[in-house]
Amino acid sequence: MDAIRAELADPAQDTETVLSLALAAGYNSLSAFNRAFKAAEGCSPSAFRAACQARLSASTPNSADTVSET
Hints:
Blueprint: H1 2-9, H2 18-24, H3 30-41, H4 45-59
């Protein structure tokens, strides 16, 4: 489950579907993976990914916030 959490939190893995990550981790179905993930984390894999992305975007300075000095 640690590896899956890391993949869901990794912005480089955004193009990977939750299903493809679940199948790569050895789960036979998305529903089985969702149940196991929710039991371990308390939220769905999609909600976990969205929360990670929100934390990342909140901690990354927005390009509009930066001032270029020339």
